[in-house]
Amino acid sequence: LVYCLFVIEWSLSLPLLIRVPLQKGKSLRQNLKEHGLLEDFLKKNPYNPASKYFPSLANDAASETLTNYMDVEYYGTISIGTPAQYFTVIFDTGSSNLWVPSVYCSSAACTNHNRFNPSDSSTYEATSQSLSIQYGTGSMTGILGYDTVQVGGIEDTNQIFGLSETEPGTTFYYAPFDGILGLAFPSISSSGATPVFDNMMNEGLVSEDLFSVYLSSDEQSGSFVMFGGIDSSYYSGSLNWIPLSAETYWEITMDSVTMNGETIACSGGCQAVIDTGTSLLAGPSTGISSINSYIGASDGMISCSAMSSLPNIVFTINGIEFPVPESGSCTSGFESMDVDGLWILGDVFIRQYYVVFDRANNQVALASLLLDDEY
Fold it and tell me: Which residues are in the Peptidase A1 domain (predicted)?
């Protein structure tokens, strides 16, 4: 296992600004296809992206869905315990719990991932609390405990986290990450567990009560999440601040979705969630059908020769236009989801902008990324 190196940016005084590098890993789709299991998996695991935000839509009682269903994931390395035990996790703004596999887990999914051993940590504190999360395409159950969590150079002491005991099925078996580190609000945290960033804020470990994200495109490296600060060298112009419409997920009000100046969805306004843990961009089927019709997508595929001439999809938020081009991968980056007109602005959207998640003022900011030759 190759671990990420953490790049620590020293500010003039403590606390620190911490940048955690993110790796762009092989997708679950690729792993399943390589093992000849993709077709069977898709039949047995129908996916509803809305179940992450509306738990009643999942097959069973749920609190969140799989952080990323089939496509590219961005994940980084953290450690838990004393001495440190290392884990790769998705930094997910669409959920609020931290959990990793544990030695108490006998599921196949735990056998090929790093597992936390409480007996090897001198700072671990057990609890009698349980944790159960039903996902759209999988689930986990386990227990809650407290220990020191290292995120970059931040030592987050007395952090509550989940230790999985079961991870049924194949979903997590083929996932390239060990666990999940949620960055949404405490109000949606399973079992009322305090999220990692809330604990950081409570302990005064960050310079500002915000974090920011940069996700690289294609095969480029350099993705990161920065705790407590903003790196202005990654964007041009100014940050465009947008107030939150709910303090659960990072939910905002969107004005409209247009293409070539024509409104194709969200006429009169709609709600959207900015979610680093979802790879695609999801929205109501009527709007997604309009987008796919404009770009000539069929069954999720687009003519590669037509990619360069496709129009941008423009998301107008708080009066500002945020265009999103097609990815260039000859596949559509959009999927349908019909729940109260909700849109999920996943990595397809986030890759186009530098994003700031501000807990102090309950707002997010978007800024245009610098072009490659501007760095």
Answer: 74-367
